[in-house]
Structures are given as C-alpha cells and as structure tokens.
Amino acid sequence: MDKLLVHGGTPLTGSINISGSKNASLPILAAALLTDQQVIIERVPDVSDTNYMLQILSALGCEVERYSGTVKITAANIHPEAPYEIVRKMRASICVMGPLVARLGRASVSIPGGCVIGDRPIDLHLKGLQAIGADIDTEGGNILIEAKDGLIGKEVDLRGKHGPTVLGTDNLMMAAVLAKGTTVIESAACEPEVMDLADFLISMGAKIEGAGTRRITIEGVESLGGTHHTVIPDRIEAGTFMVAGAIASETGITLNRVRKDHLQQAAEKLIEAGHYVDFSEDGSSVTVKPGDDPQGCKILTAPHPGFPTDMQAQFTAMFATTPGISVVEDTIFPQRFMHCAELTRMGADIKVDNGSAVITGVAKLGSAPVMASDLRASAALVLAALKAEGTTEINRLYHIDRGYEMIDEKLLQLGAKVERVRGSV
Ligand code: EPU
C-alpha cells in the first residue's frame, strides 16, 4: 500500500490541467454495453475506479483498448454475469445492471457490500428497473434481473428519503433507452454527470429529453450505434484544487480545462469564506487565491444544484484553519465524517454530531500520521497537510488513487513538497 508524505508549508503556485470526470466516466463506460458497435470515449481519467469498470467490461466479453485518456470499447459478444471479484471492489459496478438487462434481457450482479461513507442501498435502482418490467430476485449474494418479455416504458418516481439518486437515475435511463415505449423519470438526479451520460446516449441514437432537470423523458429505440464522446471535466477534482489554492497558495493557482457552470457552488462558498475566485472569460480556467481576511461559514450539502456532498470533506479541511466557527451538514450521507477524527489528530477542533460538523478554526495544524478512509476524506487530509507544519504521513493512499488522477504529480507541478512512498503498509 502506497503512502504520501506531505511536507507542509510550501506555497503552491502555477497551473495544472483538470482531468476528465471519474463519476461521469463510470456510467458512460457501462453504457458501451448497449451497442454491438465500437464506442470511443476520450478524457477517461486513469484512476483505479475506471480501471475496475474496464475490467468488468472485459470480463463481460467486451473488447477494450485504452491508450492515454482514450478508451475504445466494442461490446459485440457479451454475457450477463458480472464477476463478484471485480464488482465487490466498486459500488459503481451496479451501473452495468441497466445496460445488461436492456441489451440481453438478463443481468446477474453482486449486491454491493458496505460502504464507509454510510448506508448505500440500491432499492431505488431496483424500483426503477422493476417499474419498467424487470423481475428481480436475489441468490447467493447476487441480484438476478430478468425481463423475459422485454422492458416496457413507464412513469417512475425515483425520489428516496435523501433525495434523488445519481447512479439510480443513470441505471434506469440506460435501461429505458432500449425499452418499448416511453419512460418518464420523475425526481431524477440532475447532476452534470447525469447530463453527460444522456449526451453520450443521445449521440448513440437514444431519444432523451429533460436530462439536467427533475423530469427525464426517454422514448425507447430498437438499437443504438457507435459514437465518439469526450467526458466532461471533473468538477470535484477541480473543486478540490480550488480549495488547495485558497488555503495553500500565496499568489494563487490556476486550473485549466474546467467548466465554470459546474463549479458555481464551490466558487460561491470560497468567495463567501473570503477568498478570490476568477474565471477566464470563456469559463475554461479558474484562478483561486487566498483572501486577506478569511472567515468561517455554513455548508449544507444537497443534490445538484446544491452544494455537493463530494466537496464537504475538502471544505471541512479548509475551515479547520479558517478563523471563526463553521458548520458543515451533510444531508445526503450523514455519516460521511471520517475525515474529522483524522483532522483532529492534526490539531483541528471539530465536533461531529448527527450529520453535522462544527469546526472552530485554529491558527495552525501540526503533522501526524493519518489514515485515508475514503476518496474525498483522503483529499481533505492532503489539503490539510499542505498547510500543516512539518511532514504529514497519509496512509492507505489507494483511496485517493480511486478518483484523483496522478494527484502527487499534479501537486508537485504546483510546487508542493510531496513524496509517494510505494508499497508501504
Ligand atoms: N439512495 C437510496 N437508495 C438507492 C440509492 C441511493 O436510498 O437505491 C440514497 C443514498 O444512500 C444517498 C442518496 O440516496 O443517501 C444519494 O445517493 P446516490 O444514489 O445519488 O449516490 P450514488 O449515485 O451511489 C454518486 C457518486 C458519489 C456521490 C453521490 C451523491 C458516482 C460513481 N458516485 O453515488 O460519489 O457522493 O452520487 O452525489 O457517481 C465520490 O465520488 O466520492 C462519490 C462517493
């Protein structure tokens, strides 16, 4: 297991390119199962989660070629059984359910196991598929989905107790594109990643309207064809580096290949906290610089267009050394506060209670060996370490490698003093 040593206190400077979105890539890769024609997808980040998805696709019979950020997939001869050994490594594997049942009438996928960021049920995924005619059974830890008479479009409300579901919306949309008739998804997730999947499917010949709103209408078609698509920039990676610019630079850092319209929530909160955020005229790059008088503020996560849960850990790390009191509440994953105990080990003053963290800014953090517990929690630890005094040792780096492409190299490019120590426990 690799670990990262961060020698804190060196101001970041310069610019980096933001990678393609991990969370947009995963369902888009799965959607390649919907056609026997070749699809070409560009700007797929080289992170372990996309690698797992490509391994699943290969195991399902797809021909997969990958060179730098470009992935070519041909799903001419596929079978419906996703192997447990790979599926268990990544929850997003459940995205293959919708496309498999739509294309083959059948799918067998392992039930995802526990997750450190909280309970992550898949009832809404199953509700969606059932509503359009799939029979669902479980056997030996697998979900068996079958649509003997084909899928038939219907109106489905996918709202759960924590709001809409991103991958649940994706799964139903991917199944419905080949169903007979019209499917209407009410209370759909409207994250930019859902819109990117819809754009990908439309470019394959699907008929989808309303992606990006709470109501998506899908008119089923007989078959889909090949396509060539470029994945949107990763707004969470960009947001993470925006926070880095606010807390660990002096003159600011610039992030290229971003989309301003996807970064409104992070930008607004940084500005509210007293920092400077400047987008280029075309919105494709952003410079973030620390303010002279930063102040704590309140964050409440919510489904898009609200503040993303995937950014709350990084802002918590920033608030750890921001004067005043900040409050971070996660309504989507109320248990997603594992980073707080580790930040406390570095000297932060954070009280976590019932889905909220109250952070009293301290003057500085010190270094300590800390443990990454999940993807965004790890990013929070890296951010805190950039500002901390001394050397912070971040263990279990594989969590960050799931979703941040070459994070150590990007930090080095910005002048940070970081070292990846390979193969340590
Ligand atoms: N939920 C249900 N039932 C379901 C599905 C979800 O109750 O069947 C609940 C969840 O427990 C949660 C809420 O609904 O409380 C929203 O979860 P959602 O289904 O939207 O999450 P997801 O689609 O599994 C994606 C991202 C996550 C991100 C969430 C929320 C991918 C691969 N994952 O997960 O990203 O936190 O949406 O925006 O797109 C990450 O990148 O670090 C990450 C965890």
Summary?
The chain has 425 residues and is of the alpha+beta class.
Report mean pLDDT, rounded to a whole number. Answer: 95
**Multimerization status:** single chain
Straight-line distance between termini: 5 Å
Strand order of the largest sheet: 21-22-1-23
How many domains make up the 3D coordinates? 2
Give the helix/strand class: alpha+beta
Query: How many extended strands?
Result: 23
- Biggest sheet features: 4 strands, mixed
Q: Poorly predicted ranges (pLDDT <50, ≥5 residues)? A: none
CATH superfamily of the largest domain: Enolpyruvate transferase domain
Q: Which word captures the global form?
A: elongated
CATH fold-level name of the largest domain: UDP-n-acetylglucosamine1-carboxyvinyl-transferase, Chain
Radius of gyration: 21 Å
CATH class value of the largest domain = Alpha Beta
What is the correct CATH architecture of the largest domain? Alpha-beta prism
Note the total helix count: 14
Strand content: 25-35%
